[in-house]
Write the C-alpha cells for this entry.
Amino acid sequence: MFVGSVEHPAGVDFVILVSMDWSAYVHPILGALVTGLVFALGNSGLRGRGSGRGARQFRQFHARLGPWVCAAALLAQASGILMVLSVRFDLSPASTMHFRSGTLLVCLLLLLFWSRSFMHLMIVRQLHPWVGALAMLVAGAHVFFGLQLIR
C-alpha cells in the first residue's frame, strides 16, 4: 500500500491512499458495468415502445434504471480521471479520445435523464430514442478507445 504525496509531471501534488495493485482495475470494471447498463437501458427503452406485451414493464424498468446509469457513468468518469492522475503519468486527463468519448457519453446520459421532465412535449418524445441510440454508439466507441490505452 502506498500512502504519501506524489508529484504529477504536470506539477500537481496529491495524496494517494490506495493500493496500486488493485486500483488499476477499478475504472475498467466500472466502465464495463456502465457499458452493460447503457445497453440494458437502451434495450428496455426499445422494448418499451408501443403497446405490445410487457411494454409497460419495460418502460417502468427503463425509467427506474436511467438515474442509476447516470450515477454509475459519473462515478466511472471520476474514477478514470483519478486513475490518470494517480497511476497513468504518461497520460493527461483530456488528451485521449477515450476521455472525450467518455465525457460525451456522460453528457448524453445526463441530457437523456434531464429530458424525463419534458416527455410531455412531442419533440422530446421523438428525439429521446435517437439520442439514446447515439449514447449506445458512443458507449461502444468508448470501449474501443479504452482498449487502445491498455498497457
